[in-house]
Every structure is written in structure tokens, then in C-alpha cells.
TrEMBL record:
It comes from the Bacteria. GO terms for cellular component: cytosol; protein-DNA complex. PROSITE patterns: OMPR_PHOB, RESPONSE_REGULATORY. Residues 130-229 bind DNA. SUPFAM superfamilies: C-terminal effector domain of the bipartite response regulators (SSF46894), CheY-like (SSF52172). InterPro entries: CheY-like_superfamily, OmpR/PhoB-type_DNA-bd, Sig_transdc_resp-reg_C-effctor, Sig_transdc_resp-reg_receiver, WalR-like, WH-like_DNA-bd_sf. It comes from Scleromatobacter humisilvae. Residues 6-120 form the Response regulatory domain. CDD domains: trans_reg_C. This is Response regulator transcription factor.
Amino acid sequence: MTSKPLILIVDDDAELSGMVVELLQREGWATHAVLTGGDGERDLAALHPELVLLDVMLPDANGYDLCRRWRALHPGLGIVMLTARGDPLDRVLGLEIGADDYLPKPFESRELVARVRALLRRAAPGRAESPLLRFEGLVIDLLRREVRVGEQALALTSVEFKLLVALARAPGTALSREALSDAVQAGSYRPQDRTVDVQVARLRRKLQEVRPGADWIDTVRGEGYVFVPR
């Protein structure tokens, strides 16, 4: 499981966004940049980032309105407002409607990194989002029982979801068929080895259908199966 936090950048300045993406990726963080509020709203729901860098002035939306709405919908989301306005009243407004921080443009690279790092470290009680297992191109939401490959939701049976979670919780570690049976079915009943093989095969097929060539599950001869982040 990757430990990289995901930062969503919503800013219509493509050149600035590119520089910010490069800066944050050098710090080891995952990034995703969009140019409009509409795209930001879509990808916020699809990608579940830990933090958003949100421009106040967007071509299709008001950043303050987005901040207010996103804070209500996602209490655990970190929000940093970015704006060309340096008026202290603008900063106060941003903080009052739910932003965690406010950074006027132009800003120093080191200051942005320091504020992002401080906000990511903050784990105040009651501010946590749904537990997620996030990998490159794959997000598993444990509370919502949802799986997304890229921006596409993946329809899994209860058994397939449990198998995927069991494997994804131990990336790089081979799990036996018995261990996977335990994860799928509590109690005294245990599916046969062949049943586990069939269910894993179905899971792999569904994953490959939405992301051809990205096989996250490998077979380990004599042991079972292993989840390998791609």
C-alpha cells in the first residue's frame, strides 16, 4: 500500500499548476491537477485526495463557494486556498468558510511545501476521512465498500471485495488459499481451494477489463496469491 498522500490542485493557471505538481512530487507526494472547478468537483469525488490546493478565482466557479461546499461534504479534507488577492479580509473569509490555510500568490516554494507538510501531518480527531487503500490507479474505500480503477467504479461481489481487501492489506506478501478463505467466510465453513481460485480469477478478470495490462494480483506457485502494486 502506498503511503503517498494525494494532493488535488484546482487552478486555471496551467503553468503555475505544472510547477506546483513538479514541486510536490519532488517531496514524494502524489498529485493531480485540473483547471476548472467542475473538474475539481468531479475528481474530488473520484480520487478522494487528502488535500486540495484551491484557487479562489476559477473560470467556472467561485473558490469560496467550492470551499464551503467541500468542507461540508468532506470534513476530513485539507483545503489550502490560493489567490492573487493579498487582502487580509480575503484570508479571514477563506478561513471562516472552512479553509485550513490561505496562501497569496506569488508564494515561495519552501513556504508552500512547509504548509502542505504541516497540514498533512495534522490528524485532528473527527477530521479523518473514510479509510482508504490507495495504489497507482486503484482506490479501495473500506467504509463505502467501493473500488475505483482510475475514475471508473468497479462492480464487485461481496466475496470479490473481501478478497481484494485481504490481498491489498498485505501488498507484496503471498497469502495462502486458506488465509483468503478465512478472509472471505467467517465461521466454521471454509470454501474449497478451487472455489478460492475461481473467485480470484473472476476478480482479476474484472480488474483487467477496466485497466488492461495492469494485473495487480499474481499467482505464487505452491503458496497462493500476492497483491503487487503496479
